[in-house]
UniProtKB/TrEMBL annotation:
GO terms for molecular function: GTP binding; GTPase activity; identical protein binding; metal ion binding. This is tRNA modification GTPase MnmE. Homodimer. Heterotetramer of two MnmE and two MnmG subunits. It comes from Anaerococcus porci. CDD domains: trmE, TrmE_N.
Amino acid sequence: MSESTIAAISTPQGSGGISIVRMSGGSSFDIIKRIFKPFNKRELDRIKDNRMMRYGHIEKDGRVYDEVMVNFMKGPNTYTREDICEINCHGSMISVKDILNLLLDEGCDLAEPGEFTKRAFLNGRIDLSQAEAVLDIINSTNELSQKQGLKQLSGLLREKIEDIRDIQLEALSRIEYSINFTEDGQDLPLDDIISYVERANDEIKKLLSTANKGKLIKDGIETTIIGKPNVGKSSLLNVLLNENRAIVTDIPGTTRDSITEYINLGNLTLKINDTAGIRETEDKVEKIGVERSRELAEDADLVIAIFDRSRDFDQEDKIILDIIENKNAIIILNKLDLDSKIKKEDLGNNFKVIETSMISRDGIDKLEEAIFEIFDTKDLNKESLIITNLRHERLLNLAKEKIENALKDIKSQVPIDCVEVDLRSAYDDLGLIIGETVSDEIMDKVFREFCVGK
């Protein structure tokens, strides 16, 4: 445990009903006892007041800082496994900052980003994957991402990684026995070792197969709206957002650069890019925007291609169809209130076609239904554990590569002690996921993403 006692504001900045200033460390009780004056005059007691809310004032040298509720929690059964004290004060930034500054004057150190959770990890309460899950829950943008964060926080990923490492240990122990306790030419049969290594590899593959789903859950569905100028792309974005985020005019080329917004659609989050209209143009700035539109469409998980049904189908429309070929795409025929000059046959049979009006919002419900058909949340909910963290995915891929190299070497009759190097390294890679072996550099990188106070 750390010798210092840290303090930070644990609630978001700004005015509110209540704010919380938190301390963690061995001096927490002594500090709060010096500055807290209970309303009923009974002094704080380390044992009797453990996990009890006490009402009173924060005072020092005759100054009353605020009327508060104080909750002292005795370690080790706390978030950090250290003594913790939380001061619930009024949600005024003046009160909150004054109380924090008083705690610093009384001997606390200002907590670094994520330091409370870092102490929980260092003191053995949670592993590194669980620490990262705390951040995922805080940053979750939809119900699915929150559920996956809670599953990871419960230790589900740690248990799975430990199971795979146990399988690897079975293989490694047999290799160690062959190296150290058998005579030349009397190694243990390789079939048992191969069986354990293949089992470990299969389990890693199962986890990795969920990574693409994890990206959609955590980062949102990368969605790009494309079309010719003035067909209703920005209007669609505004309808989905229920606000005038994008400029809408009758002048073609108004949107010259992409606009990105996030919206929640049921259990899904869409990261929507409204792009510059795709057309032939001599304007240098607009040309850059058109090229950017193509790039965003190429990288998107979902493309929504909008066509103006009141205009004739032309060469530029054909270019848009070429862009969305072999993509998850939905076609919108916009301006339902006007006579149609585009036939559905012109658009082929590969995509869902929806007719809409951005003025009356007709067809928007069908667009949402079409998105749910492509990205079935029921299928996502079936997965008990989904890899949502890029660091975890990278380490799993490294372990998989080394295990497959080891399998290849075993079957090629490479000396068993050479095989052990790859297997041992893969074992360590999996340990990095849960923090069994972790450097200060990795820890700093993980906890740097946290807010101060968590």
